[in-house]
Amino acid sequence: MLRRALLLTLALALAGCSTRARLNPFDPANPGTGGRPAGFVAMAGYSAVTLRWQAVTNGDLLGYQVFRRLDGDSAFQELTGLLPARTTTLGDFGTANGVAHHYRLYFVFTRGLGTLPAEDAATPGPMRPWIADYTTGQLVRLTPDSRHIAESVGYPGAAGPSAVEVAPASGRVWACGPAGDVMIYDPADGTTRLIGSGASSPVALALDRQDGSVWVADAGAGEVRHFDANGAPAPPGALAPLATPLSLALDPGDRSLWVVEADGNRVRKYAADGVPLGAATVDAPSRVAVDAVTHEAWVTSLQGARVVRLSRGVVPQDTVEGFGGPIGVAVDGERGRVWVADAAGDQVVALRRDGSVEFRVGGQAQPRELAVDPYSGEAWVTLASAGAVSRLSPAGAEIGRTGGIAGAYAIALDDASLRASTAGPAPLNAPPPPSSRPRRRAG
């Protein structure tokens, strides 16, 4: 009995030692770290990458060292010397946009370089996608390469956000939700404020890229209102009465506004000063988008499972069928491509201007809204049931997917290159900056 007790005590002691050993962050058997630096991520930005990891304290640890390899290189090269053990962030600036940067982070001990690095990759770029996460009440910013969530901002409304837009000159993010809140978030200083819209159920936004002003569709009040770049009421006042305005689109050329009336079975067009320019009957319209080249509008109908093309004069031209039930629509005017989020069909469909199908992208779980990068031709799509955002190449291949966005709803793209040569956005109470038109980038 005594011998059995001694053996049992020894076994328990050895088990305890094994458990304690595996709590060691440098132990390859540690289930949390695998013996590598924990929490290592490479966050892509505009011509920059930010590396982050979690701190570890140990008497034998001197610090860290980072190695980097670019696509096309055959081996990793030293990026840094020894970094102090307290370091948890490192910026890699002046990196080439569109090029994948691969990183390895090593522990450095008194005995030398560790053998088990943490690894991640990042592809810098100008586009900063902003997502309206309706379920969690957050505005979510993704990295340009769609690998990570870069930032989350709480939305103060009781429901939403359901719509998002970004002003190109200032980088300010506008959002609204059906509980009556219109919010402006300024990434430059992290400030958030609500504007005095007096809205009852704002559900859609349309941003004027020339002056930074924003049109807000209030489905509950049956009107569309206009605000300047700082959130103050702007002419022409309210466009009303409207039967449940559900979607807006602005023509960047003549700044005319297209409005979907969901309960009126109509699509209306207004001049920039609010003068009506025409209306067309469209059964159960859902969303509208404008072709900046032809100035025609494309209208989806979830209930009707179709897409309708309207002329510049607001006259129906074509009806395209073959959808399960489309919602979001975006037009790549330069390439003549119309992207349609077929939510009920779990697919994204690319049309030509004549209504013919260019290609279909399957495996897109309830795609709801989408936005197109006018320079690369890529499309970013919110996937409602997957809680994710899909990034599609101009040919329709999925080249990235970011999860962890429970209620992925609306999406807008912010081009950081437009502000690269400036000191950054002005305070919210400053006058709007001069108009700025995007410059074409090679590729």
Topology:
Layout: H1 2-22, E1 41-44, E2 48-52, E3 61-70, E4 77-78, E5 83-84, E6 89-93, E7 101-109, E8 112-113, E9 118-122, E10 127-133, E11 138-142, E12 149-154, E13 163-166, E14 173-177, E15 181-186, E16 191-194, E17 202-207, E18 214-218, E19 223-227, E20 245-250, E21 257-261, E22 266-270, E23 276-281, E24 287-290, E25 297-301, E26 306-310, E27 316-320, E28 326-332, E29 337-342, E30 347-352, E31 357-361, E32 367-372, E33 379-383, E34 388-392, E35 398-402, E36 408-415
Antiparallel strand pairs: 1-2, 2-6, 3-4, 3-5, 3-7, 7-8, 7-9, 10-11, 10-36, 11-12, 13-14, 14-15, 15-16, 17-18, 18-19, 20-21, 21-22, 22-23, 24-25, 25-26, 26-27, 28-29, 29-30, 30-31, 32-33, 33-34, 34-35
Largest sheet: 6 strands, antiparallel
Which runs of at least 5 residues are low in confidence (pLDDT < 50)? 5-21, 421-443
Average pLDDT works out at 89
Question: Which structural class should the secondary elements be placed in?
Answer: mainly beta
Molecular structure report:
The longest helix has 21 residues, at about 1-20. Strands 3, 4, 5, 7, 8 and 9 form a 6-stranded antiparallel sheet that branches. A 4-stranded antiparallel sheet has the order 12-11-10-36, with no helix packed on it. The chain has 1 helix and 36 strands. About 5% of the residues lie in helices and about 45% in strands. It has one helix at about 1-20; strands spanning about 40-45, 50, 60-70, 75-80, 85, 90-95, 100-110, 110-115, 120, 125-135, 140, 150-155, 165, 175, 180-185, 190-195, 200-205, 215-220, 225, 245-250, 255-260, 265-270, 275-280, 285-290, 295-300, 305-310, 315-320, 325-330, 335-340, 345-350, 355-360, 365-370, 380-385, 390, 400, 410-415. The protein folds into 2 domains: about 40-120, Immunoglobulins (Immunoglobulin-like, Sandwich); about 125-420, 7 Propeller (Methylamine Dehydrogenase, Chain H), CATH 2.130.10.10. With about 450 residues, it is mainly beta. Mean pLDDT is about 90; it is low at about 5-20 and about 420-443.
